[in-house]
Amino acid sequence: MVTYSTIVASNAHFAEQHHLGRVCVFAGATAGIGLATLKKIAFMLHESMFYILGRSRSRFSDQLAGLTKINPSNVYQFVEEEVSLMSAVDAACHSILTSETKIDYLCMSSGGIPWQGPVYTKEGLEANFAISYFSRIRLVSNLLPLLQKSEQPHVLSILNGTKEKRIKEDDIGLEKSWGIVPMIDHSTLLTSLAFDYLATIDHSKRVVYLHVTPGLVNTGSRKQRPDTSKGWFRWLGLLILSHIADFMVRLTGMSLDESGERHAYVLTSGQFEPGSWRLDKLNDVIPDNDAVVSYRNAGWADKIWNFTEREWTRALSAM
């Protein structure tokens, strides 16, 4: 366990070193853990460029003003796109790729527990699966040429690393058997295997891929609630579960400030060699569990990547 006092001291020391000219991309940083991490990084860097992807610039205007107060030496550019859409991710990436010569930090934290059930985008992907996995990996893939030009590039996906489990192997996209738990399990394992694949093909041998679980964090955000379209008994069961989850977060969850500090620490830390890493909520590197080892040894990293590319193609052809 890396103690919170150690994290705070390390981040403060990093800030004092006056790092200049970094380029950062944040997706999912309009609220919650992502925003907390963004604020910490904004304080720790100087004269750096921040791209913040989100749905509404007007709704983020107060936070943009707050970031400028935290550190006016940086430039903060809001990129208004719907990140659940692959076409929108491509548009956002095109804007960044034509404006920058490198990317140092990519932080992704979009998504949450989909209590409301499956919702499909106009590209045909289930929205929560798209936000948690497909759009994040699309961002990495699109921005990889600029990440490879950084001296110490870090890619951070705040999701559920270290919690990988076996998946429904005959229904990777959950088209026949969508559920809250399967969606979480699939997006978790697919992220770890996709990061393994990207690390393997990284000719630059520079990129650090970090798949992190934040644990329970008291974000104070209003949670999604289940709807009644699947029946009242299911709605009542999910509503009770969502209230129990909210109570446990308030009772035992990590503070938002600490979570932001910890994710800022791993995003900027020089302790990681290039490659794919899984970290727990206290920033410890956890050895790959049986599920990851089994799937990797069976060649599933390549299989998952091929599946991901097919789904991207299908989504983009729907527009």
Automatic annotation (TrEMBL):
Domain of life assignment = Eukaryota
One GO molecular-function entry: oxidoreductase activity
Q: Which keywords, in A-to-Z order, does the entry hold?
A: Oxidoreductase
Query: SUPFAM superfamilies, alphabetically?
Result: NAD(P)-binding Rossmann-fold domains
The keyword Lyase appears for this protein: no
Q: What is this protein called?
A: NAD(P)-binding protein
Q: What is the species of this protein? A: Aaosphaeria arxii CBS 175.79
